[in-house]
Specification:
Chains A, B, C, D: This is TetR/AcrR family transcriptional regulator. The structure is a homotetramer. By secondary structure, chain A is mainly α. Chain A has nine helices and no strands. Chain A has a domain of about 130 residues: Tetracycline Repressor, domain 2, CATH 1.10.357. Chain A binds a DNA duplex through helix 3.
Chain lengths: ~190, ~190, ~190, ~190
DNA sequence: TATGAATGAGCTTTCATTCAT
DNA sequence: TATGAATGAAAGCTCATTCAT
């Protein structure tokens, strides 16, 4: 693996777990077994490294998510929704996804990161909104915009609490209640 | 106002908005019109300042929250739940509460803060859990533990999204749908 | 002496002899027996240190020059000119003046220094022009502007060559020929 | 053009305008559209590049100057002097010459450059001294050594002031007064 | 010949902390 | 109580130079 990839890999890990400010270039070098010069050879500065890390992380997450979106054709709106939520909750257990939740949280509260990634973040939020709205559009009792905002926010909240509590967090049970809640709200029957 | 209070006041603001790491003692001094020596006279070091800031912030938030808890006696479980959620959503608009959400988010992401405040955070989470469980205990179809975790997480998520998006975030509509969702899940009638 | 003065003193010496870019803050600290932190406590950054150094140097040079200007009243224009040139040449041997010539040369060729000191440099050039023009104004055959420019440039050139060659540079003889040259040009009798 | 020539060309420009220290190898590569490896293939290190640049620059300047020296035979000492000064002043407007004045100034100020080029500089100064002394030898009232030093220094000074002030610097008028000054000093009639 | 990845020393600057006053 | 001078470690970054290809 090229040193550039090593650096990005390590940076993802450290930015997500310790935050951008607290992660020194030196720390990245130490973990990636690379010299400081190498980092600045491949990335103009720390901010550019951050941007490349963000993009790389988005790609990884997209790969994970593409698996679901694939074969939902022909399903009813209800089934699509269940499918999507099911997938989201299940993927929360994946290390890549957990890292990405932590990473996004860092972005949210560190002004430096927000400033650097502003454009990229907005793009991603719009994408998520669109993906929920596409499904909700076919459900008469849904409020496309509001429910999408709500879904995103709640999933965020659960993911964050799960990632940071992890041990004995009743994720599976929450998932069931969460899905049922939405089915009821949207006028469907509960499942299970 | 004593210099110590000035320092804490400024520190709350800066820790919440910029994060603990990014907030230098110098910055605090500048904003509080106080000398560096004064800070280290009143607080052993930066970490102790952080702890005092956390405690001070908790007190402020408790004052806000006590107003509701006060007169819920004699109400039905359903009414209590609606009351509580209503209060939580409404208080999200208060500057003090927004600051506290930002502050807690900072704690979550920044390992330094977490390490310093670990004990205090756990206490607060337990308190919130207890407060929800007390209400849910009287509702047969509720799953006390799971639903409490879920409620806390979702409210967290919504608060965070609201605080950082603020402009044109449909908080009021989300609140309505959110409450109805829970009423349906717990076997009550929708309201409004 | 305060540490701030020590720093400025050392910085003058090093900026003049080695140049601004080549003079590291570390080097200044080492020579001034001061910590790096002390430098940045007293000066916002290296550029501000440069500006303060320039101003301090200008003050020193002004003190030297004030001695002459003092008692020229009542003298003829010719005598005033001779006096001034005499003083300038004599002061070239002073360590302070040599340092200032070197310093000004550094400013001239280092774009960073020029940029930082632009305003201060222009002020000083205007002052020198004025001081020569005041004397030449009373000499009919002089061309105030042109001769002032020429005088400044030539003195610069001689000072530079003297400072950097020093050993066995015939400064005294040059002074005599230099003054006579100007007396002849301006229509006076040679002296000596 | 060979890559080596490209590098030298760019290095002249950058060393003269920005100084040796401030000019990084990377900058040279960028301007010359050449890789870093190429520079170190053609030149052992940065100092050797400097020496080759100096030599190349000297050749360019010599070509310019040879044009005059060529056909001065048979002229009187006075005419030779006027010729030489005339040529020097006129050539100040040439871009090559201006670059060379800046370059020489850089050498003077930057100890690194001086150290590397010491021998080459002394050679050039001796050459200039000789060229003036040859002419002055035939003028009884001249002081060969002293006047040569003075001429060199003054021309230096004027060139420097001209190059760095450029806009609206009265070079033409200075030239006239300068030549007349020397004619008077050496016992000749003024011209024009 | 030529490339560019990689290194490590050194640069300016920030920062929590100490201490004499 | 309060000041601010002083420290030294560590941060982000630049740069000449080396080397495998």
């Amino acid at each position: 693996m090229g040193k550039k990839q090593q650096i990005i890999q390590v940076a993802i890990e450290l930015f997500a777990t310790q935050g951008y400010e607290k992660t020194s270039i030196s720390a990245i070098c130490a973990h990636a077994h690379v010299s400081k010069g190498a980092v600045f050879h491949h990335f103009k500065n720390k901010e550019e490294l951050l941007r490349e890390v963000f993009i790389h992380m988005a790609e990884i997450v997209n790969e994970v998510d593409d698996n679901v979106d694939a074969m939902t054709e022909g399903l009813s709106a209800k089934e699509k929704l269940i499918n999507l939520l099911d997938h989201i909750f299940m993927s929360m257990a994946l290390p890549e996804k957990q890292l990405s939740y932590q990473f996004e949280l860092q972005i949210l509260c560190q002004s430096t990161m927000r400033a650097v990634l502003e454009d990229l973040i907005e793009d991603r939020y719009r994408l998520m909104m669109a993906s929920f709205q596409t499904i909700l559009r076919d459900i008469p009792s849904a409020d496309g915009v509001v429910d999408s905002h709500m879904l995103i926010a709640e999933i965020d909240g659960i993911a964050i609490n799960y990632v940071f509590a992890k041990d004995d967090y009743p994720l599976e049970e929450i998932k069931k209640r969460f899905i049922n809640k939405y089915l009821l709200l949207l006028g469907f029957e509960k499942i299970k």
